[in-house]
Write a structure and sequence with these properties.
Blueprint (H helix, E strand, L loop, with lengths): L3 H20 L2 E5 L8 H6 L1 H11 L2 E5 L3 H10 L4 H8 L3 H21 L1
Antiparallel strand pairs: 1-2
Helix pairs in contact: 1-3, 4-5, 4-6, 5-6
């Protein structure tokens, strides 16, 4: 099961994006306490690491690649399709499909009011 909703709720989109970009696709053991020399602290920064320890401490989490969500985030940052594809490690065709799916979902939500 993906931890993306929990990561987004806990860390906000900015913090969750840091975790996904740096650790996506891996299983990570989150320690039960904060130490100065822990590699995750250096990788994620003190605030994000501290929040992870408080919420997920002493557990293993599966950090998703979250490609669809990242495409949406990067598109909002006005990155080109090629830039997005390179950032998430896929082809531009996948980016076009993800954006098409995003627009279809948005259009359907607009109709469902």
């Amino acid at each position: 099961m993906s931890e993306l909703p929990s990561l987004r709720e806990l860390l906000g989109d900015e913090g969750a994006l840091i975790v996904v970009e740096r650790l996506g696709g891996t299983r990570v053991f989150v320690p039960g306490f904060i130490t100065a020399e822990h590699p995750l602290r250096e990788t994620l920064g003190e605030k994000v690491f501290g929040d992870l320890v408080r919420y997920f401490g002493k557990s293993m989490i599966l950090v998703p690649l979250a490609r669809q969500w990242r495409v949406e985030i990067y598109a909002r940052q006005n990155l080109t399709h090629a830039q997005i594809a390179r950032k998430i490690g896929c082809g531009e065709t996948m980016v076009y499909r993800a954006l098409k799916k995003m627009r279809a979902t948005a259009n359907q939500l607009a109709l469902d009011f």
